[in-house]
Design a protein that fits this description.
By secondary structure, the chain is of the alpha/beta class. It has 8 helices and 7 strands; from the N terminus they run H-H-H-E-H-E-H-E-H-E-H-E-H-E-E. Helix 1 (4-18) packs across helix 2 (25-41) and helix 1 (4-18) crosses helix 3 (56-66).
Length: 227
């Protein structure tokens, strides 16, 4: 009988294979290990919804790894705003060890868990920060530091822009996982920050076998910014 980590690895490989996406074996194993760590820690701290425990691979691990194929070339430093239990930042850092990242969340317990995951997974390319990104202290430390902002938090795009601008380099990208109708959200952000948006693309995150026509309404917003 397979142990939990082996089960997670088998399920992850199935999702990846079905979608023409093949992580290196050591990376896939790390992602499976991360799944096990999250599920175990979730018994004490609410990192993901209890309803998602049985579908952690699809809803959290696979999808966070899958979006790495949309990361623009030549990016080097990313910031994960509102990382929660380490999503998408930890899968991203596993899939892209060439990138350096900062995972930030204002909830102390969550960042404590994320730091524990980073240590246990032996990830040397990311750090965890317990901060509010809009705080003067965080902005002072990380002004003009990032060429990629990632987020799967519920922050509206207009707020994500506001938080990101002091922290990004002159040329940068925002990669945000979203759901539902984004028309109004886009309109508000574009009205206020149009001068900074060089290009915007919305990808439908359809995948086999459980979201073939994107019935779940998962979207990935990619914004190219120029200060």
């Amino acid at each position: 009988m397979l142990n939990m980590q082996e089960q997670y690895l088998k399920e992850l490989k199935t999702y990846c294979w079905e979608n023409g996406f093949t992580p290196e074996p050591t990376r896939a194993e790390r992602l499976a290990h991360f799944s096990e760590l999250v599920v175990d820690k979730n018994k004490k701290i609410n990192l993901i919804s209890r309803r998602d425990i049985d579908s952690i691979i699809e809803k959290h691990i696979f999808i966070s790894a899958f979006i790495t194929k949309y990361i623009p070339a030549k990016t080097t430093n990313f910031l994960d705003i509102g990382t929660g239990g380490g999503f998408p930042g930890i899968p991203l850092s596993i899939m892209r060890p060439d990138l350096r990242g900062v995972l930030v969340d204002s909830t102390n317990k969550k960042i404590g868990a994320v730091q524990e995951f980073i240590d246990k997974l032996k990830l040397s390319n990311v750090v965890a920060e317990n901060h509010r990104v809009e705080s003067a202290e965080f902005k002072e430390k990380y002004t003009n530091s990032f060429d990629l902002i990632v987020s799967r938090s519920t922050l509206p795009l207009i707020i994500l822009f506001r938080y990101s601008l002091p922290l990004i380099k002159d040329k940068a990208f925002i990669l945000a996982m979203k759901g539902g109708d984004l028309t109004d959200e886009f309109k508000k952000a574009e009205t206020k920050y149009k001068a900074y948006i060089k290009k915007s693309t919305v990808y439908e995150l359809a995948y086999k076998p459980t979201n073939i026509r994107n019935k779940k309404g998962k979207k990935l917003v990619l914004l190219e910014l120029q200060k």
